[in-house]
Write a structure and sequence with these properties.
The structure is a single chain. The chain contains ten helices and eight strands. The protein has helices spanning 20-36, 55-64, 90-95, 106-111, 116-128, 141-147, 151-160, 188-213, 227-231, 248-255, and strands spanning 8-13, 44-49, 70-73, 100-103, 132-137, 171-174, 215-219, 238-241. An eight-stranded parallel barrel has the order 1-2-3-4-5-6-7-8, surrounded by five helices. Strand 3 (70-73), helix 3 (90-95) and strand 4 (100-103) form a beta-alpha-beta unit. Helix 1 packs parallel to helix 2 and helix 1 crosses helix 10 (248-255). Bound molecules: 2-phosphoglycolic acid. 2-phosphoglycolic acid binds at residues 13, 175, 180-181, 219-222, 240-244.
Amino acid sequence: MAVNKRTALIAGNWKMNLDHLQAIAFVQKLAWSLKDAAHDFDAVEAAIFPPFTDLRSVQTLIAADKLSLTYGGQDVSEHESGAHTGEVSAAFLAKLDCRYVIIGHSERRTQHAEDDALVARKVQAALRHGLVPVICVGESAEDLKVHGPSAIPVAQLQRALDSVPGSADIVVAYEPVWAIGSGQPATADQAESVAVALRNTLQEHGGDEMSSRTRILYGGSVSPSNIAGYMREPNIDGALVGGASLDLAAFASIVRYQKHVGS
Ligand code: PGA
């Protein structure tokens, strides 16, 4: 196994779960649990993506207690400001010290008809404000049958990278739609082969430096029992975790995958 130099990233996408009071309790317990276990945040970064209404509380807690957790929004507007009822700008997220923002999650693509062009504009909005976009790509079960595993994720990434300079700090999340919330994760081999195709896309777009520096996550039914398999793969640098990120013990165990990577 080639050991890469990219810092692993375990990202918890809470989706529309946990209000701001529940978020405070959860973040406190997560931080204690990782601290008790002497977790090395320099080796494995742990990030959470709460709903917008939680972010101010999460920011305040993390800043006051100097916690090593990072966080971000689950979506962002393509616009800067103005008459866009219900939208949240990248400037607002940056002001709350978000490091990241998830862009193009398959639930946004399907439930809100977000297309690749909009995803690309949102990526630009994030970068303008110093946020690191976590760009989600992935094929549906139908796409998989028709196009095979990597064609759609690669095409989605190419379009999302339109106008992104090779020097930009981004994260790519490969999330096969058929694996999200289904309990049917991709195998580590499957995920690695798409990660290789995505890394080649980064290389073609932004050169060797972008390709070797950018973290590629796998997402879709990640659990404490399968994380180690993904993390053994040379091109997978972390996970975007949905359901299991709401279970404190499960999420902490995924963050601490190094303790069971040999198992
Ligand atoms: P899941 O969700 O871990 O519940 O499959 C992943 C995601 O949607 O990011």
